[in-house]
Amino acid sequence: AQKITQTQPGMFVQEKEAVTLDCTYDTSDQSYGLFWYKQPSSGEMIFLIYQGSYDEQNATEGRYSLNFQKARKSANLVISASQLGDSAMYFCAMREPSNDYKLSFGAGTTVTVRA
Amino acid sequence: DVKVTQSSRYLVKRTGEKVFLECVQDMDHENMFWYRQDPGLGLRLIYFSYDVKMKEKGDIPEGYSVSREKKERFSLILESASTNQTSMYLCASSFTGTSGHHWGETQYFGPGTRLLVL
Known about the structure:
Shape of chain A: globular
Helix content of chain B: under 10%
Oligomer: heterodimer
Largest sheet of chain A: 6 strands, mixed
Number of helices of chain B: 0
Radius of gyration of chain B: 14 Å
Radius of gyration of chain A: 14 Å
Largest interface: A-B, 22 and 26 residues
Structural class of chain B: mainly beta
Order of helices and strands of chain A: EEEEEEEEEEEE
Helix content of chain A: under 10%
Number of strands of chain B: 11
Strand content of chain B: over 45%
Strand content of chain A: over 45%
Largest sheet of chain B: 7 strands, mixed
Structural class of chain A: mainly beta
Number of helices of chain A: 0
Order of helices and strands of chain B: EEEEEEEEEEE
């Protein structure tokens, strides 16, 4: 069964607008971690933001915020004030004890920012 | 800043060749990982290591082996390359962290190696 589902293969967003990337996950563990990575065309995976399952506040890092809805098993990434440099592929990932803490990745969402 | 480097950005090999992909990290991380990335499949874990000379199979180890002789270096070996191993290969590393388990904290990735097997 797919542990991480990213339903949006590709998205277009206008520069300076906000964009939300969807991520749902499947786990029966009570404790787990959720990550978002960015992969520009250069190929390197860049860590963006982390949310622990017991964190009460939604994680934020600069223009990135994570909309964590635990009951819905949803961990959407919000990028505010999009910039041309945000054009990249974005991956949601989960780490859980029952999977030996291995990172499970979604298929990714390609974001293209238009000027 | 964490620095993870991979020996090649692009590699072209012939079917049946032995292929070595090298990964080096400079942050004294205990854990190192090899993934392959294919369109529509995300990243899949091939092998990982949580200490020198230690290795564990990931989700898709078939056709691959690894070597970790030094803490900072983790090598992925394709014993006899096949066309279905054409892919993007990504190396990552992480600390074990205060949680104490081998999978540790955030994984930091190298730039990737795009391998084409003809």
